[in-house]
Specification:
Blueprint lengths: L2 H8 L3 H9 L6 E2 L5 E2 L2 H15 L4 H7 L3 E4 L2 E4 L5 H34 L5 H6 L8
Antiparallel strand pairs: 1-2, 3-4
């Protein structure tokens, strides 16, 4: 099937499909005219790509893991346990990112609390301060 039909069938934009191809996640056949020719197996691959992206994996990791996935009744499952170390590594990366976000939120909460209890109500003093990254 051509790209427009494939895009409709997968719900993924043509631009994103080209990006997947650039990243080595899809390798559609080419017709003599140069048009891409997708197959049903590519629909399964896109479903896997979307699932792995939703799990927080980057495209380089997906390119490594996607060949190890099988489609079982429209549910993508690992076909081999050799991908387990990669999945654990990605989970640790996501845990670290989540911890960093929580720490940033805690710092922001502390700043909000200090600002709220400071009692400073001098709007003129605040107005005189540089805003939005302006140089002083």
């Amino acid at each position: 099937m051509r790209m427009g039909e494939f895009s409709r069938r997968t719900g993924v934009s043509q631009r994103l499909l080209r990006y997947y191809e650039e990243q080595g996640l899809l390798s559609p056949a080419r017709r003599p005219s140069g048009y891409r020719d997708y197959e049903d197996a590519d629909v399964v691959a896109v479903r896997g790509i979307r699932m792995l992206l939703a799990a927080g994996l980057n495209t380089a990791t997906i390119a490594e893991l996607l060949p190890c996935m099988v489609d079982e009744d429209r549910i993508l499952e690992p076909a081999c346990s050799s991908m387990l170390p990669d999945l654990h590594r990605e989970r640790a990366r996501i845990d670290a990112a989540a911890a960093a976000l929580l720490a940033a939120r805690d710092r922001l909460d502390a700043l909000i609390e200090v600002t709220a209890v400071s009692g400073v109500t001098d709007d003129e003093a605040c107005a005189a301060m540089p805003r939005g990254g302006e140089a002083t």
